[in-house]
């Protein structure tokens, strides 16, 4: 006779991992938005974990460096932000960040 398992044991582990990654991406996007809003007139942002960590501590958000950079890569894959020729700089997609006052150049 086949043993039945409780439903919480039958959950898809991949789905819960993906949900957790989406939460981390949302945290990174919030930090990115907060950093960009405090920066004046430029669409290029310098993204490094130590800078985001200061904002995260003020906002009460916990995120590790590995999860932060993985979330940044996911934001790049979804074309929310784009890479530049420099390692820790990115360009904001104006479609997602219209509320920011940026220079026309």
Automatic annotation (TrEMBL):
Superkingdom to which the source organism belongs: Bacteria
Protein name: Plasmid replication protein RepL domain-containing protein
Gene source species: Klebsiella aerogenes (Enterobacter aerogenes)
